[in-house]
Amino acid sequence: MADLSVEICGVRLKNPVIAASGTFGFGREYNLLYDISVLGGISTKGMTLEPRLGNPVPRIAEGSSVILNAVGLQNPGVDYFIKNDLKFLMTKGVTVIANVAGKTLEEYGEICARLDGLVHMIELNISCPNVHAGGMAFGIKPESIEEVTRISKKSLSLTPLIVKLSPNVESIPANARAAERGGADCISLINTITGMAIDLEKRKPIIANNTGGVSGAGIKPIALRMVYEAAHAVRIPVIGLGGITSGTDALEFMAAGARAVQVGTANFTNANAMPNIISEMNSWLDAHGIKDVNQIVDTLKLN
Amino acid sequence: MKDLLSEVKSNERIAENIYMITLTLPEDAGAMHGGQFANLSTGNGQHLLRRPLGICKVDGSDISLCYQVKGGGTRYLSTVPAGAKLQVLLPLGNWFDLEEYKSVAVIGGGVGIFPLIRTVAENAPQKDFYCYMGFRNKNAVCLLNELSGCKKLTVTTDDGSYGAKGNAVEAYLREADNIPAEAIIACGPPIMLSVLKRELSQKGFKIPCFVSLEERMGCGMGACLVCVCRLEDGSNARVCRDGPVFSIQDVKL
Ligand SMILES: Cc1cc2nc3c(=O)[nH]c(=O)nc-3n(C[C@H](O)[C@H](O)[C@H](O)COP(=O)(O)OP(=O)(O)OC[C@H]3O[C@@H](n4cnc5c(N)ncnc54)[C@H](O)[C@@H]3O)c2cc1C
Ligand SMILES: Cc1cc2nc3c(=O)[nH]c(=O)nc-3n(C[C@H](O)[C@H](O)[C@H](O)COP(=O)(O)O)c2cc1C
Ligand code: FES
Fold it and tell me: How far is the CA of A96 from the centre of ligand 3 (A)?
């Protein structure tokens, strides 16, 4: 058994495997299937100040080795979370990451202030491509990334801040550096890649929102390249995600420079994906005589 | 709810474009009621999403699901041979809870008949079922032998090639005043359910009616909020976990 524990900006995770936002709710449902305390962490469904109903259905479609979604940030609002789900999650012995979004800079500041000190980490969703009014705008340009990061960080005195980068941008290194300048303690990437799926008979997009965010196994090569770029552009730690399905996928992201990983779509394909990934990481490390998972981090040797 | 690696016992065509797949579960996954569903892997790694299919038959550790070949996933599924292993998450969702009723009208259209078959099988003969089952044409008619426990069975086809011409809702409405049903259960295409709601609403919803809905799904267990339907009170409900069975008066159709 290798030591799988990792530390990210002062927060200790028992292993590097974190549930990706939006695929795991607040953990209650998956906890009926397995004890979610085996996980390193959980990033919650993206929350906003006010409750949101989200987009019309259909909200999901499938491509070859990928899926597309446009849920549109349906969530019960941050106050509901604090009242009804926070305690459940915090007693599970996993690192709790609150994923948050806002329509305005002020909303980002306000939602961070409400969660400061209540959760282990906060993850800013500045890249969700699904909501017309919010999300995307903040995550595209370095200037606005720096600004939204700075405002959010100013509201936080206790809880470390992760900024989750969008892949639908010009330069990942520039955006990663912008988040670092704004005061981010950590970066996670990638969020979904904007795409479209079409019903040819109806000549219509399948998803009601027309476009959706592409995720799942098929995006892994893109995500790996971006995680590598981000990890080599900043000094703050990076959490890698995008298409992770197996223990070796997770270790590839860590070799590319990630200190931890998140798993999203794989939970749909296989409800036990994350416990499996954790044990596969262990087996691979054991088979290679590696005693500590941190020894894998940033070991990639370019050709 | 368990995610199990099941073995395909058989996977056979039972009507035009319709297959029945029987899976042997490696362990007990608890009681399975009509209306509940399974989230089945197609076995092809390119399909990252599982397919939600209603539980149609239960026989010890064997469960049978019936599916219509529609898109790529079900087409691939129809080629999976006996002996193959498929991952299946089940049982999911709520079910047609008929505890309070002795006599029930059952309205099914197309693939909507499959979950209803399980409901009839688990409750007959203690309850009286008046069934109205609609198919496209005679080539689509299947599994009528599974409904032998019904008090009365009326079959319709859109083109009149088997049974009465027309659809199941029309057949029910013709007899509604002459059967002693205390509740209605229904499953079928969205258009069938919205017509049913309109008709029942005009009559003032004299008896409770429960419908099972379909929506595209991600997790199948309530975590991802992909599969919602809109309720009359303006809120969203998850078809996979708050449903798939709802009171027809509660959902917007
Ligand atoms: C609770 C529930 C029970 C169901 N029970 C049955 C049943 O017993 N028998 C049966 O034949 N069909 C049933 N369906 C519908 C069945 O899930 C779809 O026909 C099937 O998923 C289509 O997959 P595909 O690979 O053919 O299509 P594709 O177009 O390849 O599918 C792409 C994606 O869309 C989803 N999808 C497409 N159409 C539907 C639909 N109508 N409903 C939900 N998801 C859809 C697929 O699951 C997949 O994720 C049920 C649906 C639900 C929600
Ligand atoms: C159904 C669904 C909902 C999502 N909701 C959110 C969200 O609320 N906030 C967010 O930051 N990312 C959200 N994401 C993006 C994922 O967290 C993740 O970044 C992306 O899916 C890539 O990882 P994967 O390939 O492992 O799924 C969502 C993804 C999916 C599939
Ligand atoms: S499919 Fe995930 S909530 Fe219903």
Answer: 21
Predicted pLDDT at A136? 55
Task: Assess whether the C-beta atom of A239 lies below 6 angstroms from ligand 2.
Answer: no
- Name the residue at shortest CA distance from atom 3 of ligand 3: B222
Whether A301 is in a domain gets the answer no
Name the minimum distance, in Å, from the CA of A182 to any CA of chain B. 31
A62 close to ligand 1 (CB < 6 Angstrom): yes
pTM equals 0.97
Q: What is the mean pLDDT of residues A150-165?
A: 98
A142 touches A149 (CB < 8 A): no
> What CATH number does domain B103-212 carry, 3.40.50.720, 3.40.50.80, 1.10.10.10, 3.40.800.20?
3.40.50.80
Ligand nearest to the CA of B37: 1
Q: Which stretch of A60-64, A141-145, B49-53, B183-187 has the lowest confidence by average pLDDT?
A: A141-145
- Write out chain B residues lying below 8 Å of A273, CB-based: none
- Catalytic residue list contains A128: yes
What interface predicted TM-score (ipTM) does this complex get?
A: 0.96
Residue A289 Ramachandran class (φ > 0 left, ψ -120 to 50 alpha, else beta)? left
* Domain B2-92 homologous superfamily, CATH: Translation factors (2.40.30.10)
Tell which residue, B209, B208, B180, B179, has the closest CA to residue B192: B209
Instruction: Report the run of H or E that residue A93 belongs to, with start and end.
Output: none
Angstrom distance (rounded) from CA A222 to CA B185: 48
